[in-house]
Automatic annotation (TrEMBL):
PANTHER family: NADH DEHYDROGENASE [UBIQUINONE] 1 ALPHA SUBCOMPLEX SUBUNIT 5, NADH-UBIQUINONE OXIDOREDUCTASE 13 KD-B SUBUNIT. The keyword Protein biosynthesis does not apply. Pfam families: ETC_C1_NDUFA5 (PF04716). It is a peripheral membrane protein. It is found in: Mitochondrion inner membrane. Residues 169-182 have a biased composition (Polar residues). The keyword Cell inner membrane does not apply. The lineage of its organism: Eukaryota, Viridiplantae, Streptophyta, Embryophyta, Tracheophyta. This is Probable NADH dehydrogenase [ubiquinone] 1 alpha subcomplex subunit 5, mitochondrial. It comes from Cicer arietinum. It comes from the Eukaryota. Residues 148-182 are annotated as: Disordered.
Length: 182
């Protein structure tokens, strides 16, 4: 029993390669990730609280940090997060830290309330070779079914009643659900 407790760290899986050219194995990846995620959470505090960017970064960083704190083995961290190898996660975390500093510098959320945007309208015709992204026509079967339903007396009222009932039920279901937590 005593030997097992001593040998357990020695028997842990050792990663020999990432299999990605230029990406070396990080033997203490868990500790590096915990440090980077903690630093990310500290840096993101400089971004205003109500900004979507801050909320998104805090959400996924908190989740990843929690997984890294709960798991000791790099293999389990990779499988629980499902976002690649721990070495890739380290690169992503470093990139996120750089992006946070750029976002703070650029201040994209600091648009003054009295800022006006000049709208420029161009009435020139669209050239024929430029796609206009129009939705495709509905299938022939849909049109036939719709015409058959509309030709039967009383069916339109039944359809309208079903649609309004469906809308009421979905809005009632949405209002009773608790907001999802990220």
């Amino acid at each position: 029993m005593f030997l097992r407790s001593l040998a357990r760290p020695l028997m842990a899986k050792i990663k020999e390669t990432t299999g990605i050219v230029g990406l070396e194995v990080v033997p203490n990846a868990r500790e590096v990730l915990i440090g980077l995620y903690s630093k990310t959470l500290n840096e993101i505090q400089k971004v205003p609280e109500d900004e979507g960017y801050r909320k998104a970064v805090e959400s996924f960083t908190n989740h990843r940090l929690k997984v890294c704190q709960e798991e000791q083995d790099w293999d389990k961290i990779e499988s629980r997060l499902g976002c690649g190898q721990v070495e890739e996660l380290i690169e992503e975390a470093k990139d996120e830290l750089k992006l946070i500093s750029y976002m703070i510098e650029w201040d994209p959320w600091g648009i003054p309330d009295d800022h006006e945007i000049e709208m420029i309208e161009n009435d020139a015709p669209i050239p024929k070779h430029v796609p206009q992204h129009r939705p495709p026509p509905l299938p022939k079967e849909f049109q036939e079914t719709l015409e058959a339903l509309m030709s039967q007396p009383g069916k339109t009222e039944q359809l309208e009643a079903l649609v309004s009932k469906s809308i009421k039920e979905s809005s009632a279901a949405n209002s009773t659900e608790e907001p999802s937590k990220p």
